[in-house]
Amino acid sequence: MALVSPSLLAADFLHLDRDINMINHSEADWLHLDVMDGSFVPNISFGFPVLEAVAKACTKPLDVHYMIEHPERYIAQTAKLGAMMMNVHYEACVHLHRTIQEIHQAGMKAGVTLNPSTPVSVLEDIIGDVEMVLLMSVNPGFGGQKFIENTIDKVKRLRQMINEKGCKTLIEVDGGVQGETAPRLVEAGVDVLVSGSYVFGAKDPEGVIRSLRAL
């Protein structure tokens, strides 16, 4: 059974209370929050005023994904939100091990994200220190992109590394996760599915979440 973390990026921002209420009543495990700065990625999403409002309304654990430069500057603020997971990009952290330590010291679980062009081998010396690795199956910055097929093999390589190291690290995938790709990802070894437009654009979003969770 896969964990499901719907991406708020695809929600209706005019009716966030309605969409968050749907998530609260659904079988979703977490809520995925994509924070973009317009510098690390070519888009801007939302900042702490929105995050704080969401944190007050959402009853699910918050899975915060920072697509920003210098994410270490926001560890304390993220912990103050009550976030369960703080996910930072490998490509954005010069001192990744230190950042992971600081996330843990703040009382959160630590995740590391890899862009599509970054090989999983870069995590060999850090994999045992993080609770999760997020593989981007699209180029970060925009929702609704086409799934990058190489992600399936990348998941398999990462799963092999985790097994060989004897770690309990979860594998999460974000981008193009829908009815056709989700079963293949779970079969390859994915633990957590992030899905945005496939969930929030559905006529029955709670039903879609339930179907993803059953994989």
Compact overview of the structure:
The chain has 215 residues and is α/β, with parallel strands linked by helices. The chain has helices at residues 16-25, 48-57, 75-81, 96-105, 151-165, 181-188, 197-200, 205-213, and strands at residues 3-6, 31-36, 62-67, 85-89, 109-114, 132-136, 170-174, 192-195.
Name some characteristics of this structure.
single chain, about 220 residues, alpha/beta, eight-stranded parallel beta sheet, about 35% helix, about 20% strand, globular
Overall number of strands: 8
Share of helical residues: 25-40%
- Oligomeric grouping of the chains: single chain
Which segments are poorly predicted (pLDDT under 50) over 5 or more consecutive residues?
A: none
**Total number of helices:** 8
Give the mean pLDDT. 95
Largest sheet: 8 strands, parallel
Task: Give the strand content.
Answer: 15-25%
Radius of gyration: 16 Å
Describe the overall structure.
This protein is 34% helix and 19% strand. It has helices at residues 16-25, 48-57, 75-81, 96-105, 151-165, 181-188, 197-200, 205-213; strands at residues 3-6, 31-36, 62-67, 85-89, 109-114, 132-136, 170-174, 192-195. The longest helix has 15 residues, at 151-165. The relative contact order is 0.17.
Please outline the helices and strands.
Elements (H helix, E strand, L loop, with lengths): L2 E4 L9 H10 L5 E6 L11 H10 L4 E6 L7 H7 L3 E5 L6 H10 L3 E6 L17 E5 L14 H15 L4 E5 L6 H8 L3 E4 L1 H4 L4 H9 L2
Parallel strand pairs: 1-8, 2-3, 3-4, 4-5, 5-6, 6-7, 7-8
